Amino acid sequence: MNVTLSPHAGPVTAPAAGTRMRTWHPAAWIVWSSLAGLCAFVTTDPVYLLLLWAVAWFVYTAHRVSEPTAASFRMFLIAGVVTLVLRTTLVVFGTIDLSSTVYAALEGLRLATILVIFGTFNAVTDPFGVVRLAPRRFHEPALAAALALSIAPRVVSAVHRVREAQRLRGIRVAPLRSLPALAVPVLETGMEEALTLAESMDARGHGRGRRSRYRPHPWTGATVSVVVAASGAFGVFLSASVAGWAELHPPTAPLGWPEVHPVLVAAVALLALPGLLGPDGAGVPRAVVPRSGTPRSARGAAAEDGR
Amino acid sequence: MSGAVGSMRAGVAAHPRPVRTRGAVRTVVLVVMNVAGLAAFLWPFALPALTGDGRADGPIVLVVLVGSLGALLFLELGRGGLGAKTVALLGVLGAAVVALRLPGFVAGFSALFIPVLVGGNAFGPSFGFLLGAIGMFASGLFVGGLGPWLPFQMVAVGWVGAGAGLLPRGPSTSWRVRIGALAAYGFVAGYAYGGVMNLWSWPFVASGSAIGWDASGAAGDNLRRYASYYAATSFVWDTFRAIGNAALVVVLGRPLLGALDRAARRMHLELDAEPFERNGGERRASERTGA
Amino acid sequence: MTQALRYDRVTYRFPDASARALVDVDVAIEHGAFALAIGPTGAGKSTLLRAANGLVPHFSGGSFSGHVYADGRDTRTHAPRDLADAVAFVPQDAAASFVVDRVEDELAYGMENLGVDPRHMRRRVEEVLDLLDLAHLRDRSVRRISGGERQRVAIAAALAAGPRILVLDEPTSQLDPQGAEHVMAAFQRLVHDHGVTVLLAEHRLERVAGWVDLALGVDAGRVVVGAPADVIRALAAGPPVARLGRLVGWEPVPLTVRDARARARTQATPTVAARNSHPVAVGEPLLTARDVTVRYGDVDVLRAVDLDVRQGEVVAAMGRNGAGKTTLLRTLAGLRPIARGAVTTLAGTAPRPGVDVALCPQEAERVLFRDTVTDEVGATLRARAASDAAAPWLERLGIVDLAARHPRDVSAGQRLLVATAAIAATGAPVILLDEPTRGLDPECKDRLVRFLRSHAAAGGGAVVATHDVELAAAVATRTVMLAGGEVIADGEPASVLGDSHVFAPQMTRVFGAGWLTPEQVAEALA
Question: Which of A165, B23, C106, C463 counts the most CB atoms within 10 A of its CB?
Fold first, then answer.
């Protein structure tokens, strides 16, 4: 059910701008959440999965930016629980016995864990920072996305203003038939603004083909070490999954206790590193890489996630 | 493809106006990319016949799939040379998609397809795809809904927008035909989007149950299983969307398309007419320096 | 050496238009000039400005003959983006021109496109932040700052790329008098210290005429260039002091308060006895606000406000940006929950929006949604099931000639009149107008003033929130001054405005408290 897999959470206010320099490099978060999500994806062992929940919560509490993002995390948490329940109830479409119920519940727990990890990602990253990661080739679509993010609150307030102004004219926008009184002014105004915007962009040199970047997000020791740690953790899970040196799926037919391998537990613990370092990356030297350019490895990582 | 894009980019750098790839080449590339994209959704029906393998492959397959859809987006979005007008229009209409995806905003059901439908119909299939994809990306960022489903959403809504651009449009089409076709399309797209979006997660979400993916089953069997899964989970929900789309197009389609057509004229979007008159002096090649 | 801007026999027609927007324009502006384009709405000022960097015709289409050279480069062969390093353009609607969300990044956007070296970019950004006093806003979202701040950010963003020519369409329309002066001073510094060429269009000449050294008079697409005094005289336009000069036959026509004061010294000062403000027949209070306090979160945005709006009154609500003018109007219209106190109508009930009170919000043109002006007013009439026709309302606002036009295709000032007609057609006795000044040229302003006067004379009441001092001087029968959500002065315009350094109209500055409009002074001098 798509409603559970894409939680529609969030306030009507704009995502907080101006937090760019205080938060971590968004590419580090993309790497961390993708790899943590993949770790969850290759296992149905409830011990590792619940440990990942704990890690996600720990990282979230250490890095959350402001109230709106907390709401987003809560939505993911709720979506995770709902998914777990729904997945388990899908059993009714087959033979209902303890074994298949446990199997379904573990599958659900795996999906829920992935949701919670992405909940952390959404709660700790600055959306404009994510858009700014786009390599030069994607400059234009990324700019369009950034504009959409930035203009959306204006659309919402325009709708409220127009609705109110029409009410002052005695035109109620409640019935479907009078919806044009609301939608047309909002769109017409939007189109006029689009023309102004396009003129402004062109007059300021958009599309000249040469671009430099103003104050790109710095890579710090902390963010680099998180990328390394997350890669290590996923490497461990991947090798267990491929080479089979540890059991990642507890037996469900017949039922058995899940296995707990200390190396895999340690790998999950590695993923908690961002929570230990905190938003300032305490004690780790800043600016390992000069701020004039994003390192190739990071750009590659970002592109990989976009795939 | 990368060669074609590369030469196009070089063209942009050398000359202020973007040079367009040849229409035919572009069409072929578009078709290939979109078939590849469709395959990413439809693999559960084909794969068992190819490998006959079981459960452990699922995760790896998903990674490959997200990757291939990402490649489709990569090529579609990375074509470059959109120009300020298109970017500004995408930004403004994308903002409408974002606003309409906010919970509880405007009516009970999600109306986010309306800007994609009218935007695609007014400005064409390519714009429609970009609007759908960028609108979903931005709204995902805005509401904090980024996850592995994002590429699937971007492509699926992008297709909805592209399809709207393939419907009858242009000045010779009567309003009755244009609105009728768009409303019918919006109705169908309401179901199609739901059907496609459930498809990508179905093998992982419902495996092991009677309506779940059977990794070793025949295509026909899996189709039946999927139909029951869809009926059980998504059909009612999608019906609201289909009716909502059609109703909104009927009520709003004409005034909104009228506004977009007017904007297209005001923004002078078709640049075939040369605004400069020759009588004021000939262009001189020597003046082109200094750009 | 090349000129900053040269229009070489430019004639231009918009697509689908029958009349030419520019007719054989032959104008040169030297480097380092501070030039002002003046003329009525629709005369072609915006078109003239947009042609400077090729937005006309590269963006607008149409048919263009002749050449425009910006810093020596022909706009035929250079699109606006190719001129971005030479010409910066700031549109009227600053808020819609923002590309990036954060103030600091917005300033850098143009330089990023030009491929400016990152370190140099950083230095330029810091410089313009200081020049326009924006350093405290650097981390804010451009969507969450005030209108005046937005206008300054748009100007800073244009300046950051280091253009030699700066073109601005009504750069002070969102600013209060102090803000406008601050911005004009910044332009002058650029012109004097850095040799930048500034070309701007502005309706409120009282704010700009004293600063510029060259004027372009635009009328029906034709352009004359000259000293500001000559051009203003030729166009029969100008700030209130110029209007007075023409009324009483002063030669040359004064442009600034200083000129007028020097001239007035040689003249008999008008006698106090001759002061003759509009006689006001004030009737019953249509709206009564008593001890009204409105909160936004923990902040009192209005505090213990007492205010009456009586029959026959036009009240001007004035004050700095952010003083609480908009909140006052919304509260009077019954849109804001009141924390303490009450607003009541003549009947003693709370005002019903659209019935007892009609509010024309800021950017009122945003309510327009029909295809013709007549239909737009008709939509209001139909909504209240009124049987009267739209035509009388068009007549009251002086827009009969626009009846069949698309409301979005008329000038900004005319749109405001259309929106006012559409909202006034509710028939509400009290009309509230919030900042009706954007794009409002003298002609439209006169029509608005006439409408408000006749509405009041017919037993209605009105409140106009504005920071346009001269509009207040022309229309108000009473003036309320707001600061920090409190009413700090309430009384006759002559006494309230005469008391103020910032909000004194030009006639007050020249002749002392009590004198508000040129007509009034001319009558006394005659």
Answer: C463
A289 contact residues in C (CB cutoff 8 A): none
Q: Between vectors from CA C313 to CA C311 and to CA C319, what angle results, nearest 5°?
A: 140
SS (H, E, C) C298-323: CEEEEEEEEEEEECCCEEEEECCCCC
Residue to substitute from A157, A169, A187, A217, interface C, most C β-carbons within 10 A: A169
Q: How far apart are CA B66 and CA B60, in angstroms?
A: 10
Which tokens sit at B72? 């489709």
Do A82 and B233 contact (CB within 8 A), yes or no?
no
A90 and B71 within 8 Å at the Cβ level: the answer is no
Say whether residue B271 is in contact with chain A using an 8 A CB cutoff: no
CA distance B119 to A227: 40
Q: Tokens at residue B279, please?
A: 């009588």
- Identity (one letter) of the amino acid at B103? P
Q: Which amino acid is at A40?
A: A
When the pLDDT of each residue in chain C is averaged and rounded to a whole number, the result is 88
C5-13 and C22-29 strand pairing: antiparallel
What is the rounded distance in angstroms from the CA atom of residue B191 to the CA atom of residue B189? 5
Q: Does B88 touch chain A (CB under 8 A)?
A: yes
Angle value at C-alpha B245, between B244 and B246, nearest 5 degrees: 95
Query: Considering only CA atoms, which of C224, C172, C179, C176 is closest in space to residue C202?
Result: C172
CB count within 10 Å of CB C524 equals: 18
Percent of chain C exceeding pLDDT 90 equals 51
> In terms of CA atoms, which chain A residue is nearest residue B6?
A137
Contact C314, C464 (CB under 8 A): yes
pLDDT tens for each residue of C343-366: 999 888 999 888 899 998 887 777
Question: C-alpha angle A238/A243/A245, rounded to 5°?
Answer: 95
End-to-end alpha carbon distance in chain B: 29
Q: What's the CA gap between A127 and B138, in Å, rounded?
A: 9
pLDDT digits (tens, 9 = 90+) for C257-285: 888 888 888 876 666 544 445 556 678 89
Q: What is the pLDDT of residues A13-33, one digit of tens each?
A: 444 444 444 568 888 999 999
> In this predicted structure, what is the pLDDT of residue A286?
36
φ, ψ for residue B288, nearest 5 deg: -80, -10
Rounded to whole angstroms, what are the CA distances from C269 to B225, C249, C261, C385, C513? 97, 16, 11, 55, 13
Phi-psi region of C100 (alpha: psi -120 to 50; beta: other; left: phi over 0): beta
Give, to the nearest 10 degrees, the angle between helix A26-41 and helix B57-77. Answer: 150
- Per-window interface: A 149-188 vs B, CB < 8 A: 149-152, 154-156, 159, 176-177, 179-180, 183-184, 186-188
End-to-end, the C-alpha distance of chain A in Å comes to 23
- CA distance linking residue A305 with residue A130, whole number of Å: 12
Output b/e per residue, B216-226; b: 16+ Cβ within 10 A: ebeeeebeebb
Mean pLDDT of the region C469-480 = 90
Give the pair of three-digit tokens for residue B246: 């059609």
Whether residue C22 contacts residue C91, with contact meaning beta carbons closer than 8 Å, is answered with no
Share of chain C above pLDDT 70, in %: 97
Phi, psi dihedrals of residue A132, rounded to the nearest 5°? -70, -15
Cβ contacts of A47 within 8 Å, gap of 6 or more: A258, A260, A265
* ipTM over 0.95 threshold: no
Identify the band that residue A68 occupies on the pLDDT scale cut at 50, 70 and 90.
Answer: low
Backbone angles phi, psi at C479, to 5 degrees: -125, 135
In degrees rounded to 5, what are phi and psi of residue A113?
-65, -45
Q: Which of A88, A151, A200, A210 to mutate to test the interface with B (most CBs of B within 10 A)?
A: A151
Q: Poorest-confidence range of A232-246, C27-41, C450-464, C487-501? A: C487-501
C-beta neighbour count of A283 within 10 angstroms: 9
